[in-house]
Amino acid sequence: MYVELTETGSGKLEELEVMLAEMDHQVLSAFTKEELKPFSQLMNKLILQFKEDI
Description:
Blueprint: H1 7-28, H2 33-53
InterPro entries: WH-like_DNA-bd_sf, WH_DNA-bd_sf
């Protein structure tokens, strides 16, 4: 079975990517550059933990 993304679906995906980028910017703008490094490290640790649990 083959699944293909339609042109409409591709457009929706692009809209979603723009929305996610805007959300990322809003969330990350609350942190200073000094805070972002440990925040990023902790988020990566959390992501790895979830991957191990799956």
